[in-house]
Design goal:
Elements: H1 2-8, H2 10-57, H3 63-76, H4 93-104, H5 117-147, H6 152-182, H7 186-197, H8 220-258, E1 262-263, E2 270-271
Helix pairs in contact: 2-3, 2-4, 2-5, 4-8, 5-8, 6-7, 6-8
Membrane topology: Multi-pass membrane protein
Pfam families: Ion_trans_2
Keywords: Ion channel, Ion transport, Membrane, Potassium, Transmembrane, Transmembrane helix, Transport
Length: about 280
């Protein structure tokens, strides 16, 4: 009875670990938001002042020429200086939370990074504890699913179901969303999905206002991005655990059936392989 009760405790323990992970990321997002937000407001004022100075100094400068002069500085903080309006900067809560998720998952697109000394120091310690936490959570999810599939047929069906459902949820559906909101082709969207979920993170394609501050995105977009990254990585960890499990079993079968039998040099008898528990 005690063992049965203990086995049931594995489910809430995984949930508690997941809640702890999400709380860690969200708290990190709040801290990044507070540490970097003040500097961004200074950048906004500085860029607007620079824009007004250019307009007063060069009265013949058109909007296209003005954008060419300040677009590099403004894009670094997630601003659009077209016309007389500015968009929200990178460092608001939702984008900061997504940035925190990319830190602990080691995706690191490179388009967004802390600029203040406090933000950079916090990022070091946040990653120092967040990356191991991320690895533990993803590893526990994969191992938990494998423990529940001991029967061979059940294991095969879980393998198949996880691959098919994961491809649909984390590649096909996001591909259509990114095509609509980012204007990418299907091949570019699939490429971005894989580069992100594999944590390679080249940064050549980045979804959201992090790469295009002039485009308006719905409020739920950042939440969807953060959820997609977390659950997509959990699914990928499950797939990797399944793949490792399959390769290990194939290796055991090959070793059992194809390893040469060496004769005993003293008795002349073959030394048989010990029985393998598959």
């Amino acid at each position: 009875m005690a063992c049965h009760a203990l086995s049931l405790f594995h489910i809430p323990s995984i949930l508690i670990l997941g809640v702890l992970y999400m709380a860690y990321v969200l708290i990190g997002g709040v801290i990044f938001w507070k540490l970097e937000g003040g500097l961004v407001r200074q950048d906004i004022a500085r860029l607007l002042e620079k824009k007004n100075q250019l307009l007063n100094t060069y009265s013949c400068l058109n909007q296209e020429g003005l954008d060419a002069l300040v677009i590099q500085d403004s894009s670094k903080v997630g601003l659009s200086l077209k016309g007389n309006q500015t968009m929200d900067s990178f460092w608001k809560f939702t984008s900061s939370a997504v940035f925190a998720a990319t830190v602990v998952t080691t995706i690191g697109y490179g388009n967004m990074s802390p600029s203040t000394m406090a933000g950079q120091i916090f990022c070091v310690f946040f990653a120092l504890f967040g990356i191991p936490l991320n690895m533990v959570v993803l590893n526990r999810v994969g191992k938990y699913m494998l423990k529940k599939t001991n029967h061979r047929l059940t294991r095969f069906m879980v393998h198949l179901l996880s691959y098919v459902s994961g491809v649909a949820l984390f590649f096909v559906m996001p591909m259509m969303v990114f095509k609509q909101h980012e204007g990418w082709t299907y091949s570019q969207a699939i490429y971005y999905c894989f580069i992100s979920l594999s944590t390679i993170g080249f940064g050549d394609y980045v979804a959201g206002m992090y790469s295009n501050p002039e485009q308006s995105y719905p409020d739920w977009y950042s939440v969807l991005m953060a959820s997609w990254i977390f659950f997509g990585l959990a699914w990928l960890a499950l797939v990797i655990n399944h793949t490792i499990d399959i390769l290990e079993r194939v290796n055991i079968y090959l070793k059992h059936w194809w390893s040469p039998k060496e004769p005993d040099t003293e008795s002349g008898e073959e030394i048989k392989d010990p029985p393998v528990d598959v």
